[in-house]
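Reminder: ligand-aware prediction takes two inputs, not one.
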Amino acid sequence: MSGFSAAWLALREPHDLRARNRDVLEAVVTAFASQISLNVADIGCGTGSTHRAVSPHLPPGQRWRLYDNDLSLLARVASRADVVTVPLDLSHDLEGALDGAVDLVATSALLDLVSAEWLERFATEIAARGLPVYAALSYDGRVELDPADSLDDKVVAAVNAHQRTDKGFGAALGPLAAQTAIERFEQLGYVVVQGPSDWVFRPSDREIQTETLTGWAAAAREIGKLPLGELAGWLKRRSDWIAAGRSTIRVGHVDFFARPIGKR
Ligand SMILES: C[S@@+](CC[C@H](N)C(=O)[O-])C[C@H]1O[C@@H](n2cnc3c(N)ncnc32)[C@H](O)[C@@H]1O
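Here is what comes back for the chain with S-adenosylmethionine:
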């Protein structure tokens, strides 16, 4: 178990799909437009949402290998001839996902979980193999809540502090991950196309708003700097606004496509 339930991944998938940055995805599509066969390694695949989002845009002749350490999520990946699932702990065996026939490394909502050390290993191992990377939906710490509440800033600060705690790779980069990765790939001689992929939850998106805010309250409680009663009051006020159809939430994410100069 990774702590990411299949139900949560299913709830966020349509919002992720809508949020993906069009220009970044277009850069990926253009890079592989003339390729007759394409091997994609999707790391931290969950139930396969990256494959579902990206494969319709790429040419036929794709073969995907989907890597995750959560067996219950991998078991939910739809069986297809062109998709192979591989149980693998990326914190130890990253190289196992990069070796062999790989034309593109793809990932979604993973990089904000990893540590600076792991990201450095990821970038150097990828650069050593001259591989392009499409990394979507890394949380970047920006949050806009409407209506505003006087406790919002403190809760978001606690959430962002929680994002920096260990998620299995050492102290996580959290909101810093995407920018750190982009800068590192540029240093390694990559061309990077990047853009925002924010979630925008409308008043009618009640379920995901409720799940997101409940998760944030739990994260803030774990950080332990806010009195429990204040946190409960904040969640109640925000839940009432959701129920009344008055709540909108923007959650900042970043997508990027990094490819080695002179390749593709
Ligand atoms: C936020 S979910 C994203 C899943 C999927 N990419 C998506 O966008 O729906 C993060 C994924 O990373 C996986 N993960 C976390 N730590 C991992 C590790 N050490 N090795 C392999 N996968 C890991 C989790 O199991 C989970 O499926």
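The radius of gyration is 19 Å. The chain has one domain: 6-260. We will return to this case in the review session.
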